[in-house]
Amino acid sequence: MKLVTYSEHKTPLRTRPALLWGEWILDIRDLPRVSTPLGIRLPRPIHALSGNASSILDVLAKGPKVLDDLQKLSWRIFNRIDPENIPRTMKRLGDARIRAPISRPPIIRDFYAFEDHVRAARARRGLQMPEEWYEFPAFYYSNPTMTYGPDDEVPYPSYTKSLDYELEIAFIIGKGGINIPEEDAETHIAGYTIMNDWSARDVQEREMKVGLGPTKAKDFATSLGPWLVTPDELQDKKIGPGKFDLHMKATVNGKQLSDGNVKSMHWTFAQMIARASQSVELRVGEVFGSGTVGTGSILELGQEAHPWLKPGDRVELEVERLGVLRNRIIETAES
Predict the structure, then answer these.
(1) How far apart, in whole angstroms, are the C-alpha atoms of residue 74 and residue 72?
(2) What is this structure's pTM?
């Protein structure tokens, strides 16, 4: 199942959660009108959800059982709809504005899970791999109030001359918990999406010397999208606990720069959850970034591959099965 947050062009400020079926959007609030003619009875929690859900976060807040019921319902609906006679209430993907699946996450944690990226990025700064990196999955907190969605314009931050993209996969927590065992951790994942952890590299280099990790270097923007893909859609691509065989790539202005795969992660999604939940309660809607895949940033590739990003550049991140996350960088008065 794919869940999408969208708005109509005539009401751009009002967003709605919906199911995505190919090129068609089925608004959660329209489930009763679509299911009844098909002879499908809505479970009571789904019927209640259709009347008051205003975001994907509202959907996830109802719990894993409701999400599972919604997945089963979507399968029944989309298998009964005649492709030649789409209900009028459904909208074409191209006729809507797609937003970030979670616009204001409670927390964004970004991990450091790909060894190739860590090694290459540190080598660019003349640093060796720290032994501690192999002891636990490390992460930092990003700014949940500066979240951008697909096709949003991202303002160039005024305080950097070295803007970079980062190609990542992310997952969203669908069931809270504390001290979650690694063997149970994947049951807490609602779904997966693409993440661009925009970075000010010149600021980051100076901050890292202080010893508190990247802060202002990551404070200004995180892109998420284009939609939330539930785990059932990826089961045939799973190659082990918490790992998937999913191709990843990034292009800037149409030129491919990055080429990687989710399966090259050293730390698994389950290990990330187990680490983060130690003596800390995870909440529904929290976003976990994987960290950058190998070759997934200009920092790794070097200026010989591409100069630092500038206003006007178009960045596209693509992860197999998860879609394409596009953003254009724009100049601001402060840039």
Answers:
(1) 5
(2) 0.96
